Amino acid sequence: MKWSKKHIISIKDFSRDEIDYVLKKSSEMEDRLSHEKTGSLMKNKILSNLFFEPSTRTRMSFEAAMKKLGGFTIGFDYPEVSSEAKGETVADTVRIASGYSDVIVIRHPMEGSARLASENSSVPVINGGDGANQHPTQTLLDLYTIKKEFKKIDGLRICVVGDLKYGRTVHSLTNALENYDVEMCFISPMELRMPRDSIKGLEDRGIKVKESSKLNIKDSDVIYCTRIQKERFPDPQEYERVKDAYVIDNSSIEGIEDKAIIMHPLPRVTEINPEIDRTRHARYFEQAKNGIPVRMTLLSLVSGVDF
Ligand code: NCD
Q1: Are residues 129 and 156 in the same domain?
Q2: Is 95 one of the annotated active-site residues of the chain?
């Protein structure tokens, strides 16, 4: 794949070889980072962070990644301070940002917004989450975390728990896992099941899929939990009905395998009890930290920087 000037919009645009390449380069980047050898890779380049929706990890880790590469960031953290408040379109905002910067990260509540942004930009656009649709850089750091732990992805049993209807992180992750020889288990309330096309995508590749509304996580290597996405529910009463559907605590992990890891893209609300943080299974804080080398790698690759 030609990486330079590539937009990163959907994980579906990536082949297995391309995903594996990003994971390999991210590991090299992490190594360089530990030797403080990254500060000139994107010296004086500018990243625009256009965040039309709340974010802690995605925005901060892209900013930290850019700074560790020797570059700068500009942009906004919430749309109220941008000209969106005056009625400017996303397309115009992106056109302007692409004149001010070398790469753009955009997060927006509308599905398809990142694709639209890429069509209006003269510099690479990276999707930091478009509504309930996709979050490709989160998926790459999720896979990086899994590979770091197990030294492989093939052969693993991966269980995804929570809001599988509105969660963009699990949509991207499921699409990416079509490329691997895994077993998948989806646990959610009936109302929040994984979209049918994602399940079909897995089954078409011969991947074993189980769906359940019971929190049975015993036979899993990876337990990937998600937040119920309150902001995406059209009906607040529907949210009230499912908001406490699952809680992972010391009693629910009884009998899980020693080597099993618990992941979460964060933020968590009530779905993982903090008592889990002290167990050998918790990986969500390391997972968030892995966003740095992975996002440094993506910024470098799309900017045509060799490392
Ligand atoms: C997620 C997101 O924004 O999709 N967070 C993240 O980027 N790490 C998950 C969420 O909001 O629940």
Answers
A1: no
A2: no
Catalytic site residue 58? Answer: yes
Are 167 and 108 contained in the same domain? no
Q: Are residues 148 and 129 in the same domain?
A: no
Q: Are 126 and 298 in contact (CB under 8 A)?
A: yes
Catalytic position from the list 32, 107, 264, 281: 107
**Contact at 8 Å (CB) between 107 and 58?**
yes
Range of the domain at 142: 136-288
Pairing of strands 103-108, 46-51: parallel
The protein residue with its alpha carbon nearest to ligand 1, atom 1, reads: 265
Which of 156, 136, 288, 289 has its CA nearest to residue 223?
A: 156
Closest C-alpha residue for ligand 1 atom 8: 265
The pLDDT tens digits of the residues spanning 4-62 come to: 999 999 999 999 999 999 999 999 999 999 999 999 999 999 999 999 999 999 999 99
Does any domain span residue 238? yes
Strand partners, 130: 108, 134
CATH code of the domain covering residue 245? 3.40.50.1370
Evaluate whether residue 3 is within a structural domain: no
In this structure, the chain runs to a length of: 307
Threshold 0.85, pTM exceeds: yes
